[in-house]
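Field reference: sequence -> structure
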Amino acid sequence: THLNRAVVYEVLGALIEKGYVHENNRRKVKQYTAVNPQEILQTTRAHFENLRFLMPLFQAMHHRGGERPRVEFFEDKRAIERVYQSFDIANRRRIMASYSLLKEKFPQEVERWMLRTERTKTPTPTAYLLSDDPIARSFVARAKHQSVIEFRFLPRGSMYEMDFAIVDHRVAITCFEPISMIVIHSEKIAASAALLFDLAWR
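Structure field:
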């Protein structure tokens, strides 16, 4: 190649960040290998499905006149955990999530959430749409005695790479790579998102 080393490493860094290349640090000399193209295709399809699901919500935000909704953005893990903890106090929750990804990124928060759901005497009515994985199955087994909490699983093999929560008048979207969260405070947008969730629930 005619590219200098600095440019090569810059390009490799961008490809690693996008998930197209793996870096192997086990040896003294770094090695880089391309990700299986089929894996890249599956990830791209998952991102597309996530975007397609949320497109009506984004369009509603774009076209809505008058007062703008309050939007908060978080990148700090502790701040995101505090938002999750604020979901404990709510009248109604709708949550679509991959508990395996949540536990990988927020292990203590997932365990706290499971224990609270399992033990509380007055749980918040909640509908969960979950990726079908062992961690989600364990959560369902621990909380199935709570009559106001409902669970359904997404089709096996579905890749859901974000957390989508509608909690009263808030919509929270968590991305896992890189970790970040957007919280939209809007009664109308939350109502529109709830309609989308209910369509997926059926």
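Note: Helices lie at 5-17, 37-63, 77-86, 99-105, 107-119, 134-143, 187-201.
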